[in-house]
Amino acid sequence: MKRFAFALCLAAGPAVAQPTDFTTPEGAAFIHQSLGPTMLSFQNQGEIDRIYFSNLLAWRCGTASIMYGLNDEPPTTLFPAEPCYREFREPNVLQHIGEPGFPFFLDVPKESAQKVTIRVIYEDGKMAEFVSERAKNLIP
């Protein structure tokens, strides 16, 4: 997943110097800007929709908090994320994904969330918001 995201950044990134340490707030912000509205994925699971936060969580190093809001709600609901494991070669690795306290998806009633607004607060205090639409990010 990391290699794909990095390749995407190189192809779509702005003509400014690209960060090389993606565990920093600047590096995380660069990746998040590259992912933008494709940060989340939506999948219909019968009577529910599952909203995957896995792309965002894979690039969580450099973030202090991640919040979301469904449809027109403000993004104030905290989405818990594992810490960044800076002591390891792959600091963004998800060691506890899916365990209690560390979800990687959100289940909602089918078609009840047409969009999700994500607010990311970075470790340096800067903030960014992204909107992912169900219609544009539906996966099989």
Largest sheet: 4 strands, mixed
CATH fold descriptor = Immunoglobulin-like
Rg calculated over all Cα atoms: 15 Å
CATH architecture: Sandwich
Quaternary assembly: single chain
**In terms of structural class, how would the helical and strand content be classed?**
alpha+beta
Polypeptide structure, described:
The protein is α+β, with helices and mostly antiparallel strands and 140 residues long. It has a single domain, classed as Immunoglobulin-like, CATH 2.60.40. Helix content is 19%, strand content 30%. Strands 5-2-1-8 form a 4-stranded mixed beta sheet, with no helix packed on it. It is globular, with a radius of gyration of 15 Å.
Topology, please?
Elements (H helix, E strand, L loop, with lengths): L1 H11 L12 H11 L5 E5 L2 E5 L1 H5 L4 E8 L6 E2 L26 E5 L5 E8 L4 E7 L4 E2 L1
Parallel strand pairs: 1-8
Antiparallel strand pairs: 1-2, 2-5, 3-4, 3-6, 6-7
Helix pairs in contact: 1-2
